[in-house]
Design brief:
There is one protein chain. With 299 residues, the protein is an alpha/beta fold. It has a single domain, classed as P-loop containing nucleotide triphosphate hydrolases (Rossmann fold), CATH 3.40.50. The chain contains 16 helices and seven strands. Strands 3-2-4-1-5-6-7 form a seven-stranded parallel beta sheet, sandwiched between helices. α7 links the parallel β5 and β6. The two termini are 32 Å apart. The C terminus is likely disordered. Heterodimers with GPN1 or GPN3. Binds to RNA polymerase II (RNAPII). Keywords: GTP-binding, Hydrolase, Nucleotide-binding. InterPro entries: Gpn, Gpn2, P-loop_NTPase. Pfam families: ATP_bind_1.
Length: 299
Amino acid sequence: MPLYGQFVIGPPGSGKTTYCDEMSKYLKEMGRQVAIINIDPANDSVKYEAAVNISELITVEDVMEYVNLGPNGSLIFCMEYLEKRLTWLLEKLRKYTDYYLLFDCPGQVEIYTHHNSMKNIMSAIQNELDLRLCCVQLIDSHYCSDPSKYISALLMCTCTMYQMEFPHVNILSKIDIAIKHKSKLLFNLDYYTDVLSLDQLLDSLQNDPFTARYYRLNKAIISMIEGYNIVSFIPLNVKDKRTMELARKNIDKANGYIFNSEENQNAMLNSVMQLDINDLTLDVLEDLPKTDSIEMAQD
């Protein structure tokens, strides 16, 4: 029987470790056995109990001290080191053949956009363990408040999806922060989740003296993103179980997860907090259900 899992990526500070911790708890509530695998050699303060931790093999701090590299070079060195010693990781993972696996990955963008080690590592794990993986990419929702940052995030997501070659779900994390500062957003939430007409953002870039100088470049980037047309987002607040359920549902669809009978029953109970992506607005998400009311509905 195949295994299932997610490898969680995204820029530094996008909430990967918090996501792994909260998604692990959420899936356990549904009846799944979950193991979190930390393969970020720079992450020395995890909130969760890691079933496997790359720090037992190598850390960025050690590489910086003994190989005399900077932090970025050290992280790439660590990933290449792990790729060459993949048997170490595979032996650890074979102890969790009945678990749903969450991989907490490094936050350095280039290892997903144009470096091959991470793709090779995940492909080898998938093939060796018969593991159905989905790439979950977190993007901090504060990028939506700045047109140039949002376009940069879209470009990064597009590059990552083509480079990694895995089923892919993009998530706007910390959507609760976007709710608090919704007055700074130029458009409604669906504009950013569905990646609607980017020409409107191009007009906004012209209002900034700095970005206005690069009109032709901005237009070319927007044209390329719209030409590929593969990026969309799921909004997520890890404290809002409605958005956790929406993310879970889309990720399970992406990696083909098969429910057992007990889980399926729990999933049906969760229907009280299910939302369709088309129903989500900032006003709807602002109305955060109380945990007690959700638990009462499930009881």
